[in-house]
Design brief:
Blueprint: H1 5-12, E1 58-69, E2 73-78, E3 81-86, H2 94-102, E4 108-117, E5 132-143, H3 160-165, H4 167-170, H5 174-197, E6 201-202, E7 220-222, E8 229-231, H6 237-245, E9 250-258, E10 270-279, H7 283-297, E11 311-313, H8 314-321, E12 335-336, H9 338-341, H10 347-353, E13 358-365, H11 368-371, H12 374-388, E14 393-397, E15 403-404, H13 413-423, E16 430-437, H14 438-458, E17 471-475, E18 480-482, E19 490-492, H15 507-510, E20 519-524, E21 527-534, H16 539-549, H17 558-564, E22 571-577, H18 578-586, H19 616-619, H20 630-637
Helix pairs in contact: 1-7, 5-7, 8-14, 12-14, 16-17
The structure holds aspartic acid.
Length: 638
């Protein structure tokens, strides 16, 4: 069933329609021209709209007072931009002047007046409305603003906690307005692509469901039946597969998902996925669909998306980048130097290579001598030790081209130059070398590769182009991995519904650890932005995986297993993490910057103060009693 890449290009790579999203340039956050922002309301224009062509027109604007100056003028702001408003100085309009000049900043007002050209020399080329001003004739204060906890200006730094406590004020900033509007437009384009161009059906699935085995921790919701709880789904996985059994054929949903993962940086307990499932599809089909989807919905201002995306196996990703989500925007790849050092007398190298999965690997940090301080090198080595229990040795390339390291004495001339050739070492480069078990060595060097890239960039080297977007498919993952807490047991690398690689199906019954899966991840600039798989559609195979390999109680999934017995079509799907995708597109440091009302690092809503206590009376219908930890009982007493 596999469809060639060329075909995929033709099917998925549809031409993009001309649409434009303005950058949040100073004084402008304008959105596409086609929409009518002034329908159904009394304003004639938005605050970002007026130009020289409007001179002479009477206009009515609504907005917030961004700035005002000595009873002479003020700047009015709305979601689309800024307009300069000139206050009348004549006696007949003194009440208007007083009204507006007494209104505190961020009060919301209506002004009606005449658009005029700014006096020559007073135009502001940085402002899209900078050629004009509005001479106000009548005005109304619609609501006055009390003293603000912080100024609504992008350049004013405020703590994230304060921004989240007053999120509705933070939302007034151009940056957040821009992020939310861009997000909305991208989702709109995705809907168009999926529903209108490819026949997908938008189906909502329940958020009150039951526990799913394996995977992330789920939030529980008490029910009125004693001892019974709903779970909030970590994804609509079971429902989307059941929709395929139900003959829906092509499903998608902008799905809210929930994971009770505690406090983890840049994770949200609730987040959004573009969730997709298709019948009669293979891996190449899903990949083509997603490439076309991203190409179609990608904002023009961020450059074109080139398809097909490159692809790498999990093994290659681990060997060359030390991670299953390689950042391919820069080199510094991990190089296997086992064969070069195998002939040396270096004891720790020989030790490492004597184990079955033993290896010696290295990365070369370009210009490390010039860009990294000694303490940086020390902290890199320390981090490999503390995070991966992996010793790392450094080597420096001197100005005369020779290597300086504890190792050089033990290596012959020939080995040294082979090493330098393999790693392409130049003068002033630093090499980090690690020997040991393959996965640990790769993971440690992969992490050092990223840490040193950050250090090089902090010191002024331009390594990763901030405007570049590198998509990458990672494929051929193992189907099962040893459990971290008990390596003798296996868990699904993705989830238990993932089908084995067709070439490895027989191994499922003889050596499950060797089975590759039909799971694929989509990586963008070193971040996993999506993942999915072709599913098991055979009930017997699914039961075998659950019971025999994963040792799960298949009873919790009896509904799904039964459904697979009633003519389930072959199917597969994927989910894109919308929050992360948008944050990468807009270059936001955190996913919280693209979510209207995000939770804090600890999973709290700092504005409404959720989660919150409830009274014992409210808990009674749920047959729940809280056993208070001592500290909290004391705190409640005080
Ligand atoms: N439900 C999966 C996830 O959330 C995605 C998929 O397999 O389609 O990771």
């Amino acid at each position: 069933m596999s469809c060639p890449r060329v075909l995929r290009l033709l099917r998925g790579g549809l031409p993009r329609l001309g649409w434009e999203l303005a950058r949040p340039a100073r004084g402008s956050a304008s959105a596409p021209g086609a929409a009518d922002f002034n329908s159904f309301v009394a304003r004639t224009n938005t605050c970002g709209e007026l130009r020289s062509a409007h001179v002479g027109q009477e206009v009515t604007l609504y907005g917030w007072i961004q700035y005002q100056r000595q009873g002479l003028f003020l700047v009015l702001r709305d979601f689309q931009g800024l307009t300069q408003i000139i206050l009348p100085q004549d006696e007949a309009h003194s009440h208007v002047r007083k009204l507006l000049s007494n209104a505190p900043v961020e009060s919301v007002v209506r002004v009606t007046g005449i658009v005029s050209s700014r006096p020559p020399g007073q135009e502001n080329p940085k402002m899209p409305t900078g050629d004009i001003e509005v001479k106000v004739e009548t005005a109304e204060i619609l609501n006055s603003c009390k003293k603000l906890p912080f100024e609504i200006k992008d350049f004013i730094k405020k703590s994230e906690a304060l921004r989240m406590q007053y999120r509705y004020l933070d939302l007034r900033s151009f940056q957040l307005q821009y992020n939310l509007r861009l997000r909305s437009q991208i989702v709109m384009r995705m809907r168009e692509y999926l529903c209108n161009l490819h026949g997908f059906v938008d189906v909502e699935t329940p958020t009150l469901f039951k526990r799913t085995p394996g995977g992330a921790k789920e939030f529980l919701v008490p029910s009125r039946e004693a001892g019974k709880f709903y779970s909030l789904p970590q994804s609509p996985q079971q429902f989307k597969q059941l929709l395929m059994v139900g003959g829906v054929d092509r499903y998608f949903q902008v799905a809210r998902c929930y994971r009770d993962e505690g406090s983890r940086p840049d994770r949200q307990p609730e987040f959004t996925q573009i969730d997709i499932e298709m019948s009669f599809v293979d891996q190449a089909g899903i990949q083509g669909l997603i490439e076309g989807l991203l190409q179609y919905s990608w904002p023009q201002e961020r450059g074109a998306v080139t398809t097909p995306f490159p692809s790498m196996t999990y093994e290659e990703a681990l060997a060359d980048y030390g991670t299953d989500k390689p950042d391919t925007r820069f080199g510094m790849k991990i190089v296997d130097i086992s064969d070069i050092l195998r002939r040396s007398d270096v004891q720790f190298v020989q030790n490492a290579l004597s184990y079955p999965r033993g290896t010696v690997k290295a990365i070369c940090i370009p210009q490390g001598v010039r860009y990294l301080k000694n303490k940086d090198l020390e902290s890199l080595k320390e981090s490999a030790k503390s995070q991966f229990n992996q010793e790392v040795m450094d080597m420096i390339c001197r100005p005369d081209g020779s290597l300086k390291s504890l190792l050089t004495k033990l290596l012959g001339e020939e080995q040294q130059s082979e090493l330098m050739r393999a790693l392409n070492v130049q003068v002033d480069d630093v090499v980090l070398l690690a020997a040991g078990e393959h996965k640990r060595v790769c993971s440690a060097l992969g992490s050092l590769r990223l840490e040193s890239a950050d250090l090089l960039e902090a010191a002024g080297m331009m390594l990763r182009d901030p405007t570049a977007f590198h998509f990458l498919w990672v494929v051929d993952f193992p189907l099962f991995l040893p459990k971290e807490e008990n390596p003798a047991e296996l868990e699904s690398a993705h989830h238990p519904f993932t089908a084995p690689h067709p070439a490895d199906t027989n191994l499922l019954y003889s050596d499950p650890t060797k089975v590759r899966s039909q799971h694929y991840d989509l990586v963008l600039n070193g971040n996993e932005i999506g993942g999915g798989s072709i599913r098991i559609h055979n009930a017997e195979q699914q039961r075998f995986v659950l019971e025999k390999v994963l040792k799960e109680d298949s009873e919790v999934l009896s509904h799904l297993l039964e459904a697979l017995e009633f003519g389930a079509p072959p199917h597969g799907g994927i989910a894109l993490g919308l929050d992360r995708l948008i944050s990468l597109i807009v270059g936001a440091p955190s996913i919280r910057d693209v979510i209207a009302f995000p939770k804090s690092f600890r999973g709290r809503d700092l504005m409404g103060n959720a989660p919150d206590y409830v009274t014992p009376e409210e808990l009674e219908p749920y047959h729940i009693q809280v056993s208070w930890p001592v500290a909290e009982t004391e705190a409640k007493k005080n």
